[in-house]
Target: CGNR zinc finger domain-containing protein
Amino acid sequence: MRYIAGVHPDDWSARHSVAAMARRTAALVNALAPEAPDPRGIAALLRAHGETGPLDLTAADVTRMRRAAALLREVFAAAGTGTAADALNRLLREHTGPLRLTSHGAGTPWHPHLDRDDDAPWDEWFLASSCLALTVLLWNTQEPPGRICAARSCGDVFVAQGRGPERRYCSRRCATRERVAAHRRARAAAVPPA
Ligand SMILES: [Zn+2]
Model:
């Protein structure tokens, strides 16, 4: 194996695995849901998910990224594999460039991109890299790549990963809160009217 720019290939492939890219997509879609997210918060999130180098995100970049996030949410909202594939096909047709390979000028291992070039704006990169990850995930699992949390007050998206029982909530916290709320509702319904 060849070391590239001081990065061990194993580290690189762990950070850039399809699952890691899909988790980054979900984290960004959630962080970009509020009206005016702080660009510094979005930059910190990108760094937490492996982005390196200068991150000069402006408020205008973030506004455009919010539009990309709204488009990606449709993939998470799809109830079945077919509808998720339809949503992804629409995005791939209307919003991404052709599949190409890049090594960012020998700075990384060769990997696929769907944005038009390596200097594409943040929103184009976000939408294209997300479409790529979600597409490969759907291909791999033959299931929708993600979901929207079923908790009434949440609305966060999450990556539906692995086998086992279908996950309905983004987190243990949401699952517990819903269980408690359902319990309360059941108890209230059981009380006979006075
Ligand atoms: Zn939730």
